[in-house]
Amino acid sequence: MLLHQRPVLSALLFCLLLSNALQAQSNIDKLLPVRAFCISAPKPKSLDRFLQFINEDLAVNKINTLVLRIDFNYQFKSHPELQDSFSLSEQDVKKLVNACKQHNIHLIPQINLLGHQSWAGITNNLLKKYPELDETPAVQMPALYVWPNPDSLYCKSYCPLHPAVHTIVFDLVDEICDVFETDAFHAGMDEVFYIGDFRCPRCAGKDKAVLFAGEINTIRNHLAIKKRKLWIWGDRLIDGRTTGVGEWEGSFNNTQNAINLISKDVIICDWHYDKAEPTPVYFTKNKFSVITSTWRKPAVAIAQIQDMVKYRQAAKPAIKKLYKGIMQTIWTNADSFLDEYEAAKTATNKEENTQANCFMAMINEINKISQVR
Predict the structure, then answer these.
(1) Beta strand segments in the chain, E
(2) What is the pLDDT averaged over residues 235-244?
(3) pLDDT digits (tens, 9 = 90+) for 266-318
(4) How far apart (Å, rounded) are the C-alpha atoms in residues 341 and 326?
(5) CA 113 from chain center: how many Å?
(6) What is the model's pTM?
(7) CA nearest neighbour of 37 among 342, 356, 326, 358
(8) Which is it for the CA torsion 267, 222, 256, 147, positive or negative?
């Protein structure tokens, strides 16, 4: 080969590789517009490690949305009494913001609202500092938590009708959205077992679907003031009995009718972890945008991706745009997941049902379908 030909061939090879990469990106954007990853925000000591994960794993594997569960892991200026002992500073968050901007990753913070105000035998910061907001103050936290229990205690809820609750939580929401420079906020809203308690002086006797919808719309309307979108988990909008998905993935306390009462621009994250349920169709028929969500079973993640692609291909344009994509959810802390993920990348067995293996199966399927012309 003549020496002067080598630069020309190298340039042609580069153009070919770039063309293939752009085609793959175009394919996956059409097939799965949202490829999301949801995890608890790292503690300050683990921030650099997590930034490396964003740069070297999320971005490289076409993840374009990162939902970070903040809750009280931030040094709130509006309510410093609610922050955890070791929390992210504003400067820490800006590092996360900049990393995501660099890779065009949509960064969305989450604070659990309404439900999940406790876990096992521990009351979380909001009700610990403001016990008057508790929907069920008569239910005492046990020394040794077991499920089931006589109080049907899973997680505590705040009272959505308490006159002081939104003043406090909206301070947190506004502050965290501002520092994250975001146009969306995830409010959780999953597994709300305590709502409209018969002992609550404000909620007793009220329709639980109306209470649930009222809280969603109140949060949605507050976010809309600054043109921010509300994301929630979708389980309380599914009838757990008639669908057969059960009391965790669906409602057994009659909140499901809230689907007819809430704003259609709320984004639904539809989680099912043991089976690729067809509930995204239910949400799009009700005119909601939906993101199917997976956890730890690789086969389920692959089926959910394939289903989402089929839904989009079969739907008419007005409905197609509502099928947004898929989200990997992680339910351990960031360090535990990263330990598991780093070990799994070099392991030979990829079929084991773990979060890391599920994530790798998800990104492999994403890369696979992105190559389809």
Answers:
(1) 34-40, 65-69, 106-113, 118-119, 122-123, 184-188, 229-233, 267-271, 290-294, 323-329
(2) 98
(3) 999 999 999 999 999 999 999 999 999 999 999 999 999 999 999 999 999 99
(4) 19
(5) 13
(6) 0.93
(7) 326
(8) positive
